[in-house]
Amino acid sequence: MTMHFRYKLQERKNHGNVYAPCIPLTFSGKQKLTSVALIDSGADTPVISRDFAELLELDLRGKKQDVAGIGGTVKGTLSKVSVKIEKGHDRVVFQMPVWVLDDFNNNPLLGREVFFDKFNIKFQQNEKKFILSPTSSRAGR
To answer: Does the global pTM surpass 0.85?
Structure first.
């Protein structure tokens, strides 16, 4: 199974609009929400905003910790979320840890941890598209 996606036009502060590898996902906690997430090969871990996590009703009782990134250090809580990717008749569902950041006002971000383990990802920058292929046959269909 391979899933093909086109880059999405994203507004960036101080950079105008750029095309980026973004993917529509359904996130599930006690509630479900669909959002577009940025695939970020430079990020170690997945990240969502506290507001988004609260809408999903994720467990946020964990200890707040310093989470470092390219923009500096912010406070965050580690939680867990279920993610569903669908394209045509293909579907993949998996659980992943996610950092819930207090000071994060962007769409969800998919870092390398778990997401890059679940998929072989081929970026085709010049064509503004990417291809996902699950790394194991255990991916849901």
So the answer is: yes
